[in-house]
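Protocol step 4 of 6: structure prediction from sequence.
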Amino acid sequence: MYYVYFLLLSNEDLYKGFTDDLPRRIDEHKKGKVKSTKNFLPARLIGYEAYLLKSDALRRERFLKTTEGKRFLKRQYRDIINQYLNKRK
């Protein structure tokens, strides 16, 4: 399986990533081993999508990094994001 996953970073940004080993990749993020997220810990997994084909997962990740895709993702996970942010206050 191939996964597109979504992390909520400490600076309130959403990080979108791709992997074929979700537990390992999330662990790398949490341990600060990923350059693009290490300065924004804690990074919380808020969702993921699973695909049988690598090409489908990569296509989905590319879409979610576009302006339209970012808007879609923020709407889709709005309640989870708001719940997390309200807990921090």
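Step 5 (inspection) to follow. The chain has one domain: 2-88.
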